[in-house]
Amino acid sequence: MPDKRGLLADPGLPEAIPEAVAGSHANSAPCDRRSFLKCAAAACAACGIDALAYPVTSILPWNGSESDSRFVTEARFYERLPNKKIKCKLCPRACIVGDRERGYCGVRENRGGTYYTLVHSRVCTAHIDPIEKKPLFHYLPGSLAFSLATAGCNVNCKFCQNWDISQVRPEQVRADYAPPQKIADLARHYSCPTIAYTYSEPVVFSEYLMDTADAGHAASVRSIVVSNGYIQQESLKAAFGKMDAVKIDLKSFSESYYRDVVCGELKPVLDCLVALKKMGKWTEIVDLVVPTLNDSDAEFRGLARWIRTNLGVDVPVHFTRFHPEYLMKNLPPTPVPTLERAKAIADAEGLHYVYIGNVPGHPAENTYCPKCRKMLVERAGLTTIQMLIHSNRCPFCKQPIPGIWRV
Amino acid sequence: MKKSPNTTRREFLRTCVAGAAVLGASGALEFIESAEQGAAIAKPKVIIARDAMLRGSGSSVDSQRMVKLLDQSMQALFDGDRPAEPWKKLVRPGDRVGLKVNALGGRAFSSNLQLVEAVCERLQEAGIRAQDIVIWDRDTEELERAGFHIAAGGNRVQCFGTDQVGYEDDLVTYGSVGSRLSKILTRNCDILINLPVLKDHDGAGVSMALKNMYGVIHNPNKYHPNGCNPYIADVNMLPDIRARMRLTICDATTATYEGGPGYKPQYSWRPSALLAARDPVALDYVGWQMIERKRAEKGLKTLQADKRDPLYIATAADAQHRLGIDDPKRITLIELQADA
Q: How far apart are CA B274 and CA B258, in angstroms?
């Protein structure tokens, strides 16, 4: 039974890239204090020393005798059908599930014609992470997020970094009973202004996410979700409506990629992004760039144009580096020049905040003012080195900088 | 065999004969190939053995009649005269034998207890120690609900679910499938005997031999889209499964023709039969036709018209998989009727 509580990295997020670090700094001039700190942070990230990510295993000790029944709650998004079948209305897959069967996600079960979630308060991993790890770059930079996950996912990405919790059934991983109030209390106790639902796919534990967000808000703790955006509109409004910010993985701009690599669909994800904009939710987008599969100029351009047209130029977009994992070990890590090409195309299409991710120390980790081009937030790996935005504006030219910058 | 430069023709022949003798002495030539070794038997046999009196005048299956029905099936399949003969061709003392049952349907609709008991009895007569037999499925609680007595350790026949021991950490892959395998399969079984139930399946169309292997992997929920095609065939191609699979005896004492995979009494009937085959594809094809005939009799649409024909059976037989034969002209179907 895998137990990776306290050890997990976000899907598709910072990993060791020594070459990139060397590449960025090999020719640097004499080292000042800032450069030193930057190098140190990048080196830590490169070595996998995640100094700011505290595992909370000791806070949530696994109790092997934990009864499954504690985690079982009636699901909120489904419809009863004849013959004790149900139709799930949580994600676009809309599974029709027979009695004693589970949906595609593996965490929802039909028991006698009633649909249950098996993962309410069933936390299989919890960490205290920098918010930059989600990544959210325009949301409370430098703050910590109490980050948690349950088992399960409603897609099956061949490159999943966390497949050993996302692609399993809840009974196949160790888990702790962590009801919403406990999470809210822990977040406050550890001075985390935010609870993050992340690592696996929070859509599949929507009920728990909603209840925890409510408990958090009552304790003045915010909530954010890191999701694939593969969710039906009604459940999106109910679940993500309780979030203070959202990060969506727009894994490609091609239906065939979604079908073949993700085992999902593109259109519902685009619909989700549009809905989030209408709801006024702060949203950032990650595109994991996989060599040869979704790295063409045409795809980058199509994606950037769609974002510009439908979401606006101020939505931060992160092109992140792929690492071979799970069912996709046959491809190399994404070359940094590919990510730079993606950024150049998105910049040329007029997007204001285009970042490169999973390349610690890369200059495209920083936020620059779209008007005067001065650096406003300097980052290295998961660390914010300096934050100059004041009153949501560039301190140099007073250009408004969109985001949620202060608690 | 590589002939060394100094070997004479006579020496070479002698070596060959000796090798053959060694194989013969160990019984290896008589042993049935695993699905991997003997994939797609040219003209596979499928036995349907029926006994109208299987339940006598009651509702539960008569153990004695079940043993006889099993013997009839196995003797017909292996051309044996005595009950123990087929089993001796299938296993040898020291083998650890896994009986992969289907326990999802509770007491009413899981692999028949009397059938499983009869198989255990014959295996022991063939020299398999009780503790080397393991009756298993995904979940221990489901096995209990189906009426099996849980036993782990001691000199008894073992019976428990994968939840007790877990899945291997490493992924195994074939085609579209990437899964972790039950440790019961990988660590407790040299030989696998598949004991599925004949049932309708809302996703796959039908569920018998090939589909029952979903109980071996950790993530079956990921492989139900598109009528489970090609996933079922791909799962059966996983080397650890393929290398161990020797025999399928499908429980058709009770079967469903609609509303599956859960048990719906209104859509069930009692064929009071066993289907036995070494070729899981041929068995699934024959079982599928039984379900189609029952559906026609009940005035239901064909599975194809219902848009859920079991395409995975053809995939399992295709050139990429070669798990068996789905061409009725090439399947030798033997139907037997037990004496009253």
A: 19
